[in-house]
Amino acid sequence: MALSILFLFLFNFILPSFSHPFDPLSPLEIQIVTSTIKSNFNLTSRLTFHYVGIHEPNKHDVLLWLANPRSSPLPRKAFVVARANKQTHEFLVSIADGHGMIVSQSVYRGSGFPTLTFEEQTEAIDLALKYPSVVSSMEKRGLNVSNVVGSVFTIGWFGQAHNETQRVVKVLFFYKESTVNVWVRPVEGVETVVDLDQMVVTDFQDVQRCVLPKSEGTDYRASSMQPPFAAETKPINVVQPLGPSFVVKGHTVSWANWDFHLSFDMRVGIIISTASIYDVDQRKKRQVLYQGSLSELFVPYQDPTEEWYYRTFMDAGEFGMGSAAVELEPHHDCPSNAVFFDAFHGGQDGNPVKLTNAYCMFEKYAGNIAWRHTESAIPGELIREVRRDVSLVIRTITVIGNYDYILDWEFKKCGSIKFAVSLTGIMEGKTTPHKHTSEIKEEIYGLLVAQNTIGINHDHFLTYYLDLDIDGQENSFVKGKLTSFKTDGSTPRKSYWSVVREEAKKELDARNLPTEPVELYIVNPNKETTIGNQVGYRLIPGPMPRSLLLEDDYPQRRGALCDHNVWITPYNRSEKWAGGMYVDRGRGDETLNIITQRNRDIWNKDIVLWHTIGFHHHPSQDEFPIMPTLSGGFELRPTNFFERNPILKMKAP
Amino acid sequence: MALSILFLFLFNFILPSFSHPFDPLSPLEIQIVTSTIKSNFNLTSRLTFHYVGIHEPNKHDVLLWLANPRSSPLPRKAFVVARANKQTHEFLVSIADGHGMIVSQSVYRGSGFPTLTFEEQTEAIDLALKYPSVVSSMEKRGLNVSNVVGSVFTIGWFGQAHNETQRVVKVLFFYKESTVNVWVRPVEGVETVVDLDQMVVTDFQDVQRCVLPKSEGTDYRASSMQPPFAAETKPINVVQPLGPSFVVKGHTVSWANWDFHLSFDMRVGIIISTASIYDVDQRKKRQVLYQGSLSELFVPYQDPTEEWYYRTFMDAGEFGMGSAAVELEPHHDCPSNAVFFDAFHGGQDGNPVKLTNAYCMFEKYAGNIAWRHTESAIPGELIREVRRDVSLVIRTITVIGNYDYILDWEFKKCGSIKFAVSLTGIMEGKTTPHKHTSEIKEEIYGLLVAQNTIGINHDHFLTYYLDLDIDGQENSFVKGKLTSFKTDGSTPRKSYWSVVREEAKKELDARNLPTEPVELYIVNPNKETTIGNQVGYRLIPGPMPRSLLLEDDYPQRRGALCDHNVWITPYNRSEKWAGGMYVDRGRGDETLNIITQRNRDIWNKDIVLWHTIGFHHHPSQDEFPIMPTLSGGFELRPTNFFERNPILKMKAP
């Protein structure tokens, strides 16, 4: 309790940026950490770094430190996952005075493997492209080998016993002649399996010769376009003559009534920590979110045939939403008033890798209204008050091969935090001999989107980790079930609905399916408004179609994060991964579904909200050869958090 | 078929604005029409005009005319609903050469009454405020009568027989002393019933003396605010140095690849007609939407007690979404690059009433991305293509007493039409003696949002009328049911989903509940893409919690538009009203639920899509005394309508 009170003063101090406990590792720190491991570790095979990031300090220590940031900085520690001797090694390395020290070291012996590195993917592709059988297969098809490109596909897990599961991937091939849109021109039938630890091709197949779809009309570069062009409109821009309103010190951001810490992680991308909002009526900062980020992204394709069945990707844990984030293009990826930030992560060799323009921050004014009213009930008076809706957006874009994920955090002055997920990029094409739907007699697991090209049905399920701390750590989860009631007949009305409060005492009580009308609250049961409502935030869920895989199917076991759209767990620093920590070839033994089976107490505890949103995607021609953005999102909205509308006293501009 | 082909040429001609068949009645036309009725109609009591609008011409005639707009204009006809002699009269009046002629005239003898006029509401309030018992009730409460304001409440229908149903409303009272936020200060316990035809008070009640909630902190005017103020941010604006890209000729709008006709109606507000999109690949305009608008808005409150049970409003049919549209404030209600338009409707006396800035049109750039991709699979090449998402918005804001509805149409270059519904304004407060939730032992049907004030639970259900004509009139509705399948075991994968096509042959087949995973298509079964997919649009539905009223409860019978989220009917010029045409005190005998029981053929017919979106609203303190905007929406998205992405060839700006 004392901690919570102290926490409130946190953001009144300007912190030296380098000392914030959640600051990502600096390039120098990355170097120190990986050098320490290299020099202290007996190598008999090569050592590859798969994750290098800040080791999250103990929450208690962070809150203590934040309450008194003039005290000495918290010790810096890094968590590292490396691969050597065909084993996954975990290290904890402390950093002090420019030196690193291995604090702990262990070998992970469970199922699954760490995130793939960019470098080993490149190496595997190079290897496969030079593999003699691949070369001869390409030549047999009359293809110019120098125009063949490769891509790494993780292969999931399908019931193999632990000792049968190797760290292998498939390398598949695409043809880039006449178009850069390689994804719609797979050289299907040829595939290689590469063992990433030994970096050797372990399997090769050339099972069938498929047609190569034509390249015409598939390129998406402006430079390759011929008239007629799509309709143009006149220039439009967002301008801020006095500059942006946000202030960034180190990794701490202040904007309007919000303060938060912003970090960037190899695995999940943007992490927002210790977000608090200034309550103008109470004249103090109030805690909202201790930490939040994307946790996992599950993409099961729905073609069960030999060539496609294994495509059941876990993009965060397998490819890294941070390390696969792409450089943002000013004026286009983010509007002209955006500010761009670089980020660093550890490369496979342990050296820091710079991501230029890894994320952007901008104020958004989409022409919307924060609140308004025109009053005509009062004779002789014209009353009209309108406030514009201006918000703060933090954007990152991650490209996993063919697909582009635009992920936005949006902070609103009314206290809401909105999350937007936008899907664009290129749908993976599967080749088919068919040029017209009339020729199709069999199940094609998708839609013919162009001649010889099927867009395969698939899903995107994104699970967010949201450690809300509403006015303190001890929070609870309440479902407000909208329930029909019959009246007693004392008026002509026969029915009404009311909200039946259901308190989630245990983890299994909290799980939710999005089919029933329910309001979902995270409340602080120890804190009431002056008129007695529990302070809280409400989750307005995103789209969440249920998964349609069978419960005992392997992808569904690994991707059990989509069994429900809401889960609550007690805070546990080591529980961050909705699909488990080691998801490449993992067996789903650490998913939210498994974690919550312990059915721990969650009432009046430090709890974490996990929210899964999803998209079923049955492709259409209009999405070929590149896909107009499809968006969804969700909102955390203050609900009896404030005594009254927190932007009532917003001045008109 | 010939018609459809002709239609395609339609927008290549510039039409003289005055002659378009869908143009709203001009002020002169309104005057001619109502004068004609007045002079031809034998009056024994007063005549009040409740609806004056264009009589929609026969679709066949419109399409013929549009195919050859140089031919003589279609005859102009007006449809008028008036009240006289306690009867509802319907008139069809032709207008030619500056003269009107009554073409047909009838008395409506079914259930329900026409839309209330603004003038009769004012008159009823004035009458009630001067009613001696009201004055003395106010004085008994120590209230200054000159500070009391009134508001008209429609009272629904609760099983009364036809001859028992009078055209009466309740006038309720609110106190404006010290605050203009009258809605949170009801003078509860006092109510009057006013007969609108006779314009007399027919009933009066002073059942209980309730507490009057305090005014402090309820005013929302900037001028009444004291520091501290909510956090401010620096100026931000949308600028278009070369002006907007849309061209408006009369009521015809061209923007980017879109052309459509824009009208404004007393009852439903914005009507978009004959919207077509230019297909850059086919180099021609293609039909999308023959006509679309909001049809009805049902707002049942969930307090069944004597004072509140009847509050089950049908805002479009009872109050008029067009006639209750408010003047938009430049720079605030719409961004600075918006263009504003006036509209006219017929007043109660038949004279035209001008609505200044009734709607606005602006190009929107919210910083979003239309499509993008970064390609890293091709060694040595950096490929990044990003296109910004700029759209066209048409906005109108309707205020029904306390609530403000912001209704946007958004046209996107990718072919999507998006609909946004935003709720703001003031929640109706119910008084209570309670100042703290701990005092509440009984069901309060809502939440204590301030001392002595309950925000009452309620819903908003909005049904849109969408007469899609995808590449012609004959269309069909198809549900693509996402269905789980077991595999044959030939691969390790056990399951997948696929789309099972279900064709809706009859009206009852088409009704949909939003609980199952399904894709909803309007297709043209006579038209395929070159590779054989049926051209169509997909409805991405909005939020739609099911109604929680009992099926046989009177409000649910009147508001049966919320029984399903999708309905399909064969086009019928007279079927425009999801809740029926005469909804004030109506018995629900013309709702979509009733209409569709005829179970007409809808396959390969000229069909209409009706879509209902809804919000359950359990209030919170953060929404008091004025509500931060809550938004929802839906999308019509081209699905195999184009051969490929229609904005592939959009130039980078």
From TrEMBL, chains A, B:
Free-text description of this protein's post-translational modifications in UniProt: Topaquinone (TPQ) is generated by copper-dependent autoxidation of a specific tyrosyl residue.
Copper amine oxidase N3-terminal domain sequence ranges: 114-209
Domain Copper amine oxidase catalytic: 236-647
Domain Copper amine oxidase N2-terminal residue range list: 20-97
Enzyme Commission no: 1.4.3.-
Record keywords, A-Z: Copper, Disulfide bond, Metal-binding, Oxidoreductase, Signal, TPQ
Gene3D superfamilies, A to Z: 3.10.450.40, Copper amine oxidase, catalytic domain (2.70.98.20)
PANTHER family registered for this protein in UniProt: AMINE OXIDASE [COPPER-CONTAINING] ALPHA 2, PEROXISOMAL-RELATED, COPPER AMINE OXIDASE
Name recorded for this polypeptide: Amine oxidase
Originating organism: Cucurbita moschata (Winter crookneck squash)
Gene (name only): LOC111436910
